Amino acid sequence: MGKLLEIIDNKKNKLDSLRPLSKELVKNLDDWFKIESTYNSNAIEGNTLTKQETTLVVEKGITIGGKSIREHLEAKNLAFAIDYIKKFVGKKIQDINLKDFLNFHYLILKQIDDKNAGKLRKIAVKIAGSDSVLPEPIKVPELMDDFIKWLHCTKEHPVKIAADAHIKLVMIHPFVDGNGRSARLLMDLILMQSGFPPAIIKVEDKLAYIRSISKAEMSGDYSDYYQIIFNVVDKSLDLYLDLAEKSK
């Protein structure tokens, strides 16, 4: 994994040398990533809106026939949450506390499940199709406190911190619903705080992505998981670099 992180750092340094990017390019990239992230993150969780339909719902407020109200709200909410976390990009990860993270989750589930939106779970949950044994609800508050302390103290490579934050949250599974989307949202925030573009895990890679998390949980082997996350960061950097170079 060290070699891939070295490649990522080289691309990041090259991107930094091309900054500042034009306002037009930054807006274009932000808009593109918002739709891509919203569509893929929701699709991984079973939302059936296509990418084009997601764009219409998010950008035009159009209602798609044959699609549920929940699916429309999932698209609108996640897109809003992606915009919302940008206010934290200029801060340090040490500035993010549990209340902030609960607010992120609230934005994802508002009007979908207001009873549980922004609240740690108090019931046992299980991941469909997984043999993973999740923590008992009574342990969740302490695990989240430990998670926040780790987040504030860890000194590793920012891409690895982002990847670790994602999988640690998935393993805690602090919410009744919206855990995956919350974990991917936090991962992107950590990346952006360090000057990296967001990481988009494609729905086409859902099976490999889920299997890599399950493998890490069950055997302690994180190699497949890190490979997937580092690769998507690498691809995002390629896109940024290509457009940045063309704009100069």
Give your account of this protein's structure:
The chain is mainly alpha-helical. The protein has one domain: Fic-like fold (Orthogonal Bundle). It is built from ten helices and no strands. Helix 7 runs antiparallel to helix 8 (179-193). The protein is globular and about 55 Å long. The mean pLDDT is 95.
Order of helices and strands: HHHHHHHHHH
Helix content: 55-70%
The CATH homologous superfamily corresponds to Fido-like domain
What kind of sheet is the major sheet? none
End-to-end Cα distance: 32 Å
What form results from the Cα inertia axes? globular
What low-confidence regions span 5 or more consecutive residues with pLDDT below 50?
A: none
Mean pLDDT across all residues, rounded?
Answer: 95
Summarize the structure.
With 248 residues, the chain is mostly helical. 64% of the residues lie in helices and 0% in strands.
Task: Pick out its properties.
mainly alpha; 248 residues; 64% helix; 10 helices; Fic-like fold
Write the layout of secondary structure elements.
Elements: H1 2-17, H2 23-44, H3 51-60, H4 69-84, H5 98-109, H6 140-153, H7 158-172, H8 179-193, H9 206-219, H10 223-247
Helix pairs in contact: 1-10, 2-3, 2-4, 4-5, 5-8, 6-7, 7-8, 9-10
